[in-house]
Specification:
- The complex is a heterodimer.
- Helix content of chain A is 0%, strand content 53%.
- Chain A is mainly beta.
- Chain B is an all-beta fold.
- Chain B is built from no helices and eleven strands.
- Chain B starts with a strand and ends with a strand.
- The chains are: A mainly beta, B mainly beta.
Chain lengths: 117, 111
């Protein structure tokens, strides 16, 4: 059955290292979202793409985070350099957003649990 | 004021009871409203959405929307222990065209 996949599922790294998270959206979905979830802040939108074009990345710390969508089947979120405060679960979600209200349903991947020591 | 507010709970109800989860939002231009369920350690899962004032029923779940009061709720009838999870309210604002999530309400259904 169709689902969003994310890799890796878990990542432990040292402060200062580069981290790359990958997402494969549901085939045919035209919008991809990156979220970060922590106990303190809850679920925060970092960036999203429609038809591979970045629409909004205002939630993302620009100095260290970058998001790209090199093709329709792959979205990436990169942190360089990573810091302990980046420790969180990072979710990718996809949806088939075509301007209709019903199309704002988003389907989440399993997440990447990142720990920066 | 947060854009989307939920009672953080925890909310405990006995098995078989009705669980009522509430959410208020600040943007009057908000158009669409979503309820996600998130089990511990898992990703959010869409369970209901509602766009029009009134009630929308799906099995044991009923979403209620009152745009004048900027209020949306989720009722779970005949609650089961398997309903124990955190329930996230999400709102599509008129201007931002993206979902804003509440902090979630943790529900525990006691056997």
């Amino acid at each position: 059955d169709a689902r969003v996949t994310q890799t890796p599922r878990h990542k432990v790294t040292e402060m200062g290292q580069e981290v790359t998270m990958r997402c494969q959206p549901i085939l045919g979905h035209n919008t991809v979202f990156w979220y970060r979830q922590t106990m303190m802040q809850g679920l925060e939108l970092l960036a999203y793409f429609r038809n591979r074009a970045p629409l909004d990345d205002s939630g993302m710390p620009k100095d260290r985070f970058s998001a790209e969508m090199p093709d329709a089947t792959l979205a990436t979120l990169k942190i360089q350099p990573s810091e302990p405060r980046d420790s969180a679960v990072y979710f990718c979600a996809s949806g088939d957003l075509r301007g209709l209200q019903s199309a704002y349903e988003q389907y989440f991947g399993p997440g990447t649990r990142l720990t920066v020591t | 004021q947060k854009e989307v507010e939920q009672n953080s709970g925890p909310l405990s109800v006995p098995e078989g009871a009705i669980a009522s989860l509430n959410c208020t939002y600040s943007d009057r231009g908000s158009q669409s409203f979503f309820w996600y369920r998130q089990y511990s350690g898992k990703s959010p899962e869409l369970i209901m959405f509602i766009y029009s004032n009134g009630d929308k029923e799906d099995g044991r779940f009923t979403a209620q929307l009152n745009k004048a009061s900027q209020y949306v709720s989720l009722l779970i009838r005949d609650s089961q222990p398997s309903d124990s999870a955190t329930y996230l309210c999400a709102v599509l604002s008129g201007s931002a065209r993206q979902l804003t999530f509440g902090s979630g309400t943790q529900l525990t259904v006691l056997p």
